[in-house]
Write a structure and sequence with these properties.
This protein is α+β, with helices and mostly antiparallel strands. The chain has two domains: 4-165, Creatine Amidinohydrolase, Chain A, domain 1 (3-Layer(aba) Sandwich), CATH 3.40.350; 169-344 and 387-460, Creatine Amidinohydrolase. The protein is 41% helix and 14% strand. The strands form seven sheets. The chain has a five-stranded mixed β-sheet with strand order 6-5-4-1-7, with helices on both faces. It has a three-stranded antiparallel β-sheet with strand order 9-10-12, with helices on one face. It is globular, with a radius of gyration of 24 Å. Bound molecules: glycine and manganese (II) ion (2 copies).
């Protein structure tokens, strides 16, 4: 946790931005995976964590945006709870640790919210993403779960995203610590990779490193020789001579900040020339995007830098023909990289995406989203100092996508489909690091580099 004054200042600034009504910020509850007392690893809601600091289940924060009075709701442990889970600070202790004025039992929450509603006050909440939170909000607000999304607070949504997007010095320091976990995870994967070993064994060691140095993974580890499957969680493969292994994994630091990196490397420790050619194009796209990143740049401009480098590289291999400008304008980069170049990183591995573009159509708030230009929609996202985002270009050979576009006559004269047949079983390559936008450009998060050049990768793979 950070110091008390940081949480006090954040809540004060949130009140200033929202201006009126009550701000209701539910923390997460424990989530059972097969019976109530056998729960998944607890993960606090990131917005609750940002304003109230505690990674403890079943707490709710409420802030009166007009008076600034804040309240933490929750129930103190009973002796029964202590028998099973050990002693726990009281709700008042939790409140005091983060400078919250009031501490109340959970039973008071419904009374207080209903009183505010009866007085005609607005109750601001973010779009909920967990079933338990939806049910709680539905009960508290008297709104059926299917209508909760329609009644979310845009004022709160923009205020939270704008605040969370700009990382302070202490948040950058926490991200630097999360990098160290990512470094351990990825170098573990490289060292353990060798022909004949299962993907499962390496994936387990990668996740173990996340638990050894932090609280665990920041998302389900992607580790596969089928790198062309973007979010491949199948680890059943046996490492095969001549294949590439893609590892996309990140760890979470004790105070909730995360890392997200990808490396792709040869199972047998030595790239073939064909693999090296594609790898070095992806590496150049990664480096070019980082070098181009400037404060004030639109996200789409940043992304386009990588797309152009990829098209130039593929042209040099005769996989793309004609001018790079024409190929770019036709959208041909999508065939090879059917995902964006990056996303925000912070307390969430896709920072604020629960309140952002994945959660609803921005057409309904287009003007406001353009004016805000924050991370909630990549289309109108302006990258400013303090923004942390990933830089993750890739080149993938997805047979189904190649066949679809070829049969539709798409990119005719631009994509060399004949030559592309030689790459159908290539797989995919992605390289990913996390960048912070500075006053003059950008800086990679981390005190060192996870091996990324061909030479450095070949030097570590298989070196147990
Ligand atoms: N969590 C996968 C990625 O965005 O890199
Ligand atoms: Mn990733
Ligand atoms: Mn990522």
């Amino acid at each position: 946790m950070f110091s008390t004054d940081i949480y006090v200042a954040r809540r004060k600034e949130l009140c200033r931005r929202v201006g009126k009504g009550l701000i209701l910020l539910p923390g997460n509850v424990e989530s059972p995976f097969n019976y109530p007392n056998n729960t998944y690893h607890f993960r606090q809601d990131s917005t609750f964590l940002y304003y109230f600091g505690h990674s403890v289940p079943s707490l709710v924060g409420v802030i009166d945006a007009e008076t600034g009075v804040d309240t933490l709701y929750g129930d103190d442990f009973t002796v029964d709870d202590i028998i099973w889970m050990g002693p726990q600070p009281t709700i008042r202790d939790f409140a005091e640790q983060v400078g919250v004025a009031e501490a109340k039992p959970m039973a008071s929450l419904a009374t207080d919210i209903q009183r505010a509603i009866a007085l005609g006050r607005e109750v601001h909440y973010l779009p909920p993403y967990r079933g338990e939170t939806k049910l709680m909000l539905s009960d508290l607000l008297g709104v059926v779960p299917s209508m909760l999304h329609a009644r979310k607070s845009l004022d709160l949504l923009f205020a939270v995203a704008e605040m969370r997007e700009k990382k302070s010095a202490e948040e950058i320091a926490a991200l630097e610590e999360a990098f160290e976990i990512g470094y351990q995870m990825h170098t573990t994967a490289m060292r353990l990779t060798r022909v004949g070993r299962t993907e499962h064994e390496v994936a387990g060691a990668v996740d173990g490193a996340a638990l050894r140095y932090g609280t665990g993974v920041s998302f389900t580890t992607i580790l596969s020789q089928h790198g062309e499957v973007l979010h491949n969680h199948d680890h059943s493969g046996i490492m095969t001579d001549g294949r590439l292994l893609l590892c996309d994994a990140g760890g979470e630091h004790l105070n909730g900040y995360v890392s997200d990196h990808t490396r792709t490397f040869p199972v047998n420790g030595k790239f073939t020339q064909k693999q090296k050619d594609i790898y070095n194009i992806v590496l150049k796209a990664h480096d070019d995007a980082a070098a181009a990143l400037r404060p004030g740049m639109m996200y789409m401009e940043y992304s386009d830098v990588a797309s152009r480098t990829i098209l130039e590289g593929l042209k040099s291999l005769d996989l793309v023909r004609g001018s790079v400008d024409d190929a770019f304008a036709a959208g041909a980069a999508y065939l090879f990289m059917p995902h964006g170049l990056g996303h925000g990183i912070g307390l969430d591995v896709h920072d604020c995406e629960n309140i952002g573009e994945r959660s609803f159509s921005f057409a309904e708030v287009e003007e406001r989203a353009k004016a805000s230009a924050c991370c909630i929609t990549r289309q109108w996202w302006r990258l400013m100092p303090g923004t942390v985002l990933s830089d993750e270009p890739g080149i993938y050979f997805v047979p189904a996508l190649i066949d679809k576009f070829e049969s539709e006559g798409k990119f005719k004269g631009i994509v060399n489909y004949d030559k592309l047949r030689e790459y159908r079983d290539f797989g995919g390559i992605r390289l990913e690091d996390d960048l912070v936008v500075t006053e003059t450009g950008s800086k990679q998060i981390g005190s060192k580099q996870i091996p990324i050049t061909v030479e450095d990768v070949e030097a570590i793979v298989g070196q147990e």
